[in-house]
Amino acid sequence: VQVVESGGGSVQPGDSLRLSCVVSGFTTDEYSIGWFRQAPGKERELVATIDADGRSDYADFVKGRFTISRDSAQRTVYLHMNNLKPEDTAVYYCNGRRSVTELYWGQGTQVTVSS
Question: What share of the chain is helix, strand, coil (3-state, %, to 5)?
Answer without folding.
Answer: 10, 50, 40
